[in-house]
Amino acid sequence: MKEQLVEIQKEALAKVAEVETLKELQEIQVAFLGRKGSITTVLRGMGKLSAEERPVIGELANNVREEISGAIQGKQTVLEEAALEEQLQKEAIDVTLPSYPVKFGGPHILTSIIEDIEDLFIGLGFEVREGPEVETDYYNFEALNLPKGHPARDMQDTFYITNELLLRTHTSPVQARTMQAYKGQQPVRMICPGKVYRRDNDDATHSHQFNQIEGLYVDKNVRMSDLKGILTEFAKHMFGQDRDIRLRPSFFPFTEPSVEMDISCKVCNGKGCSVCKGTGWIEILGAGMVHPKVLEMAGYDTKVYSGFAFGMGPDRIAMLKYGIDDIRQFYTNDIRFLKQYHKA
Ligand code: FA5
């Protein structure tokens, strides 16, 4: 039995020394030290030994077991370290390799146009304000001299949410909100950019969702010539000295008198094309002197205060500035189109 145990130890240590994988090592552990392993099999014959031999063989068997187990553990550490090393080698990253080019995004063309207009008006002493896109009927219409049932409500086909709530059809409700916030006491000089919604059929120049920028100037002695001066300044800044501008008499219930401003079409240079519907002109804004009723509703004394307001469409302005022939290009998110207008 002694020889058998010595032989088992020799054989086990030789196998452990040769083994190359953790799986094989585990098999060796089972084969020699397991419940049905060689040592256990040999020790089953202990019963036949004399009382003196038994502790000697028992001690030897323990030593053999410890030797084999120690060798297995040592080998396991070596194999595990080798496996980890191999994995690290495989996953190694060469930080000196050139990287893939990073694609940079940029502001949407409409964002750039709106920011440009904001900069101009901030320079002229206007503040930038915001208002809600889900608006009340009161601010969108009533506070602007458009009581319920007024036929001019049809000028802007509206998405109603409830009888009293709607998607704002223009940025003009921010006029009423701002004047109320100023409690009819202080001069106002503000612009308000934002999205507006109308049940318009989409075509080259109409979108059901588009942007507007509202402008409002209320103070003592504000006159129509001030409005004309500011709009001319704006048109020159936006389109350069060589574009023609015209003011046409118009009607808005919240301004009196009212005008619309057209710019000569840049796409066809005034000759007539699909963008300007053959007229050579494109309407970019509506404006006028704030109606006395609107000033009064907001608490202003019309003997002291007067004002002008305008509402422009940055989408149409961008189309004119860059010669873009379809407003839908802004909203279909074709990156090949949009990236042409990313500022460096
Ligand atoms: C208004 O919305 C008035 N609130 C403007 C105003 C403000 C007048 C203050 C007086 C005082 P209008 O419906 O004309 O007006 O729209 C103003 C501008 O929005 C138009 O000149 C045009 O540039 C743009 N616009 C109108 N409808 C669309 C549309 N469906 N798609 C794209 N732009 C549009």
Automatic annotation (TrEMBL):
Give the GO terms filed under biological process for this record: phenylalanyl-tRNA aminoacylation
EC number(s) per UniProt? 6.1.1.20
Q: Write down the InterPro entries for this protein, in alphabetical order.
A: aa-tRNA-synth_II, aa-tRNA-synth_II/BPL/LPL, Phe-tRNA-synth_IIc_asu, Phe-tRNA_ligase_II_N, Phe_tRNA_ligase_alpha1_bac, Phenylalanyl-tRNA_Synthase, tRNA-bd_arm
Recorded GO MF terms: ATP binding; catalytic activity, acting on a protein; magnesium ion binding; phenylalanine-tRNA ligase activity; transferase activity; tRNA binding
Q: Does the entry feature the keyword Membrane, yes or no?
A: no
Top enzyme class: ligase
* Superkingdom in the source lineage: Bacteria
Q: What does this protein's record comment on cofactor binding?
A: Binds 2 magnesium ions per tetramer.
User: Where in this chain does the record put each Aminoacyl-transfer RNA synthetases class-II family profile domain?
Assistant: 109-320
Q: Which cofactor does it need?
A: Mg(2+)
Q: What is this protein called?
A: Phenylalanine--tRNA ligase alpha subunit
Species of origin:
Ornithinibacillus sp. 4-3
Which gene carries the instructions for this protein? pheS
